[in-house]
Amino acid sequence: MRVTRIVDLSRPIGPGTQAFPGDRAPELTRSATLAEEGYNSTELHMSTHNGTHADAPFHFLADGARVDELPLELFTGRAVVADVRGRGDRSPIAAADLGPWRGRFVPGAVVLLHTGWSAHYGTDRYFDHPYLAGDAARMLVDAGVRTIGIDAPSPDETPFGAHPGSGWDTHLAVLGAGGTIIENLCGLELLDFPDPWFSAFPLRLDSGDGAPVRAVAMRWSADG
Ligand SMILES: [Zn+2]
């Protein structure tokens, strides 16, 4: 077995990273330079929820696991890419919309919701993304799924501007089951091969409610 292709599903981290409403963008400050110290080094200040990142149960649950307590098995697995593109602003994705992939929702599967909304990244419209209805999230959890990713800032409706949102049903369903949610994915349209293998390991942040990840999809070949 060998990896024959790796597709990057992650956003760059920097001052241009689009932050969730209320969060600041990351700041990178050069703390040593080749000219002065003989080496480059940088201080990084960022939210645990900037860019492509994983949510830990502690994000919403006082007794929930911290990101450094979650089993690493949650962050790698066979990807089930649900193509739910073509939906309108703030439209709910219902359990019935996931019907074509239902037989693949099994323990260990990583369900990636391909909304196409990553095309709006960097604009206000990015926050008007489609979202996973609570009943759909509970259907996935009941099937044993514990890892859900989305190419949008959240699998729940995002409160922004005049829109108050509609609660945190999906976060509560997935995180309440001890799972994780990977947000701000991109590049899902590049997955043109069967059975992509997903990995997005979070930084081992002490008592973190979330952490940045480098999300990738890999193609494996049986030969060699
Ligand atoms: Zn988050």
Quickly count the helices: 2
Cofactors, ions and other ligands in the entry? zinc ion
Rg of Cα set: 18 Å
The stretches of 5 or more residues where confidence is low (pLDDT under 50) are none
CATH class: Alpha Beta
Kindly identify the CATH topology.
Glucose Oxidase, domain 1
**CATH H-level name... which superfamily?**
Putative cyclase
| Global geometry | globular
Biggest sheet: strands, sense, closure? 9 strands, mixed
Q: Kindly name the structural category.
A: mainly beta
What percent of the residues sit in helical stretches (DSSP H or I)?
A: under 10%
The arrangement of helices and strands along the chain is EEEEEEEEHEHEEEE
Number of domains: 1
Alpha-carbon distance between the two ends: 6 Å
Q: Using the 3D structure, state the CATH architecture.
A: 3-Layer(bba) Sandwich
Give the number of DSSP strands.
13
Q: Kindly estimate the percentage of residues that lie in beta strands according to DSSP.
A: 25-35%
Key terms for this structure?
224 residues, mainly beta, Glucose Oxidase, domain 1, 9-stranded mixed beta sheet, two-stranded antiparallel ribbon, 2 helices, 13 strands, 8% helix, globular, binds zinc ion, hydrolase, KFase_sf
